């Protein structure tokens, strides 16, 4: 188990496909499971679409599709796997039943990781055989390019399996974030959710369009966030004294009633503004076309970022 080579991916939607592509790029043998054999064609098409970006980011020469195996039997997909990445719909009942099934068919020491973006692992693995091997491995879309993965333990997860999971994710060029204890929404999604809720309020009350709000991030804090997060950014905002002066000067503003945080009702009017606003932003380009532009940008950005992040982080 020191060098995990065989990986099962359960579910081949956007996130599952991302895991499959990333694992194939790092020479893992991938056993993919989905109920419909017709999805295999779509999956291979997505692998080929993304390969130019993956190839450039990870300096790979060619794609070895001989390492890719598609099954419509979950038992067959799990039989040889040392690491299992589950990518089913975000639903407690569904995931708990699925983990019960995975636990029955998986090898006793196989690590099981859920791609959940906010559910608690203790509950997800409550009916799974050997729950000490169950974790959350929450990625970020597109999984085949972005390096972050939040590793969240359940109450019964063993330290040994957490360390093995960390080593596995590092072996596919990811930067694991070890969450100390389980909490709903984990880390990043709680931050993203706060921003999303405030954006919904602003649009719902007619203060800005989706494009104007996106530009407010893209041309402002978003440029800084690609190199450093909120806290280091605010540390710099404090001048020579750093965060100490930042808190003294801007701390009182926390009491101002600027934000609402509680989500607004997703009414037909608000939904219409979101849908029409983002359609206008797309300017007639398909999701695939915009995805290609985003992927190329993320590859170039990460290569550029490497020049600077080591100067800050090390």
Topology:
Layout: E1 6-10, H1 14-25, E2 29-33, H2 39-58, E3 68-71, H3 74-78, E4 83-86, H4 92-105, E5 111-114, H5 121-124, E6 134-139, E7 148-153, H6 159-171, E8 175-178, H7 188-204, H8 210-218, H9 221-225, H10 230-237, H11 243-250, H12 268-282, H13 287-313
Parallel strand pairs: 1-2, 1-4, 2-3, 4-5, 5-6, 7-8
Antiparallel strand pairs: 6-7
Helix pairs in contact: 1-2, 2-13
Tell me about this structure.
With 314 residues, the protein is an alpha/beta fold. The chain folds into two domains: 6-178, Rossmann fold (3-Layer(aba) Sandwich); 188-283, N-(1-d-carboxylethyl)-l-norvaline Dehydrogenase, domain 2 (Orthogonal Bundle). Helices cover 50% and strands 12% of the residues. The chain contains 13 helices and eight strands. The chain has helices spanning 14-25, 39-58, 74-78, 92-105, 121-124, 159-171, 188-204, 210-218, 221-225, 230-237, 243-250, 268-282, 287-313; strands at residues 6-10, 29-33, 68-71, 83-86, 111-114, 134-139, 148-153, 175-178. Strands 3-2-1-4-5-6-7-8 form an eight-stranded mixed β-sheet, with helices on both faces. The longest helix is centred in the last third of the chain and has 27 residues, at 287-313. The radius of gyration is 21 Å and the shape is globular. The chain starts with 5 loop residues before the first strand and ends with a helix. The mean pLDDT is 94.
